Amino acid sequence: MNIKLNLLLLYVLFLLLNCCFGRFLVEKNSLKITSPKSLKGTYECAIGNFGVPQYGGTLVGSVVYPNVNQNGCKNFTDVNASFQSKPGSFPTFLLVDRGDCYFTLKAWNAQNGGAAAILVADDKEETLITMDTPEEGHVANDDYIEKISIPSALISKTLGDRIKEALSNGEMVHINLDWREALPHPDDRVEYELWTNSNDECGPKCDNQINFVKSFKGAAQQLEKKGFTQFTPHYITWFCPREFLLSKQCKSQCINHGRYCAPDPEQDFNKGYDGKDVVVQNLRQVCFFKVANESGRPWQWWDYVTDFSIRCPMKEKKYTEECSDQVIKSLGVDLKKIKDCVGDPLADVDNPVLKAEQDAQIGKESRGDVTILPTLVINNRQYRGKLSRPAVLKAICSGFQETTEPSICLTPGHHLANSLISNSDMETNECLENNGGCWQEKSSNITACRDTFRGRVCECPIVKNVKFVGDGYTHCEASGALSCEFNNGGCWKVSHGGRLYSACHDDYRKGCECPSGFKGDGVLSCEDIDECKEKSACQCPDCKCKNTFGSYECKCNSGLLYSRENDTCIGKYTSSSVASIWMIIVVLVVTLSGGYAFYKYRIQRYMDTEIRAIMAQYMPLDNQPLIIPNNQVHHDI
Ligand SMILES: *[C@@H]1O[C@H](CO)[C@@H](O)[C@H](O)[C@H]1NC(C)=O
Ligand SMILES: *[C@@H]1O[C@H](CO)[C@@H](O)[C@H](O)[C@H]1NC(C)=O
Ligand SMILES: *[C@@H]1O[C@H](CO)[C@@H](O)[C@H](O)[C@H]1NC(C)=O
Ligand SMILES: *[C@@H]1O[C@H](CO)[C@@H](O)[C@H](O)[C@H]1NC(C)=O
Ligand SMILES: *[C@@H]1O[C@H](CO)[C@@H](O)[C@H](O)[C@H]1NC(C)=O
């Protein structure tokens, strides 16, 4: 009941807006038939709001109208048909009839059948409409919509019939789809707008929108910084008709007394966030842009919006003012100015910023009313096609006057899904300033900021095999194996007298442990143990104890030495060493005296014989038997 009322109300507002002020412009491009002669000419077609239109380019192909499955609602794999063009021949443009299923399903089947583009022939005479994706929840399995990459075009019933007739007569129909004039490209700067919403709980459409903002951020910021583009974000709001002002619907969905409303995220007024929470956050995002733009840094909007969606999701109940304030502060933008801009949502007054947004919603000149969310407007024309980085970049590039495109547009393959921006004129490092608003460990220069082609991201790093976990903005912590190299593994350390004392062990399983001579938890503190006071050492009688940092000194009396190992005093020499010295001395003495004795003996012997021999020549030696060597006796005297 509530939901129905709610939707009905919005629908009424919607109709009011549409009927009374605005119009919805169908974005068209031209379709040129080059053959047969009877059909030659330029016709209008309407670009579908999915797939990838070839903005700035042309595509030439040959039309095929299938014999069966003519509305394209079944896949073309079970019928004997492949539209894959043969080498050297024209790509196939598959012509199907409108009706029986969603446009997107027809396009998906055509793409899988190998067609290069799909033409849908209207089933009644009318002005062309924009083929859009199905409303949320209308198809069970709509993952495929994101995968549609071929361009699509709706043609009139008349043109469709004439093409079919030519084909049935056996003629080849050649068509040139031309997107070169689909967007105006008057000068060297592209102005573009994104009509978006801060609501992150609306399913695939919201996910797709924020994923686009995240992936396009890098390119958007660089184009903006170099002055190639001027970007403005916009937010749609509705107003509550006077007679409903006091209704529950308006109270929960609107701010400023029913002036600015947004649908309830869960479509239930009794739970979760209300429509008015979404309006306030939308307002903050517009104000953020305004303040950042005034300080000459409009590109910060992309950071705010992506950071907010990461840090403050509805799912985690963080879609709040406090969380938003934190993001703003981390980006270094003046919070007070933003609060002034937001004003008081309860006041019964106009908010100039939201008033301007409502005025901008109504189409002017070449741009129709904005009624589809999200909507991208490039050079005042609504972009049609898939909201993806390569497709949008291609469209923006086609909005520059020829030869004034930035080099990012000229890089071959810039249309490839994962192409990087590698041009030197595109390089900037956002982490250099204020660390990109990311977490940082000041003492060791470890940061969660990384500059990527998607712009800067805040992600906890991996340093020296230590993985950090956290939100990347306000905290990151080393997880798993501790490393003493980072922050000393979270353990205590101190430098004293030129020496480092640390409680960190390279073996992380030990955790933090005070080094010997200290006591404590090893994390916050380790205290020097006073070994002397605690009587844990130097307990020998007459020992003198002195505490030092991390250790102690102990002196023994009477020339004894202190043995730290056994905490006792010992003599200068141990008994064993004294004994061994004595042994050496004895051996030395024995050897020396032995040698001397031998020497003496030899001398004695020599003296004895020699002298006796000489003396014996002059006198008889009575007391000893005369020994006279034979050879020394002189017989001739
Ligand atoms: C095509 O449709 C048939 C049944 O209609 C189905 O069995 C088959 O899986 C489909 N093929 C693809 C590629 O979707
Ligand atoms: C399918 O195509 C083959 C040749 O490509 C042809 O021989 C066959 O008859 C076709 N089948 C049908 C049912 O059309
Ligand atoms: C942003 O700033 C530029 C130049 O300072 C100005 O021309 C433009 O109108 C501003 N945009 C908004 C939405 O205030
Ligand atoms: C941190 O980075 C700054 C600037 O790059 C540098 O001057 C400083 O020495 C670095 N500090 C450490 C601990 O690496
Ligand atoms: C210390 O004590 C151990 C055993 O208690 C002993 O083996 C060692 O020789 C002693 N050391 C000294 C220097 O006395």
TrEMBL record:
This is EGF-like calcium-binding domain-containing protein. SUPFAM superfamilies: PA domain. It comes from Trifolium subterraneum (Subterranean clover). It is a single-pass type I membrane protein. The keyword ATP-binding does not apply. Residues 528-570 form the EGF-like calcium-binding domain. Residues 1-22 form the signal peptide. Belongs to the VSR (BP-80) family. Keywords: Calcium, Cytoplasmic vesicle, Disulfide bond, EGF-like domain, Glycoprotein, Golgi apparatus, Membrane, Protein transport, Repeat, Signal, Transmembrane, Transmembrane helix, Transport. GO terms for cellular component: clathrin-coated vesicle membrane; Golgi membrane. PANTHER family: PROTEASE-ASSOCIATED DOMAIN-CONTAINING PROTEIN, PROTEASE-ASSOCIATED DOMAIN-CONTAINING PROTEIN 1. The keyword Signal applies. The chain crosses the membrane at residues 579-599. InterPro entries: cEGF (IPR026823), EGF-like_Ca-bd_dom (IPR001881), EGF_Ca-bd_CS (IPR018097), PA_dom_sf (IPR046450), PA_domain (IPR003137), VSR_TRX (IPR056858). One of its GO terms (biological process) is protein targeting to vacuole. It is found in: Cytoplasmic vesicle, Clathrin-coated vesicle membrane; Golgi apparatus membrane; Prevacuolar compartment membrane. Pfam families: cEGF, PA, VSR_TRX. Gene3D superfamilies: 3.50.30.30, Laminin. It comes from the Eukaryota. One of its GO terms (molecular function) is calcium ion binding.
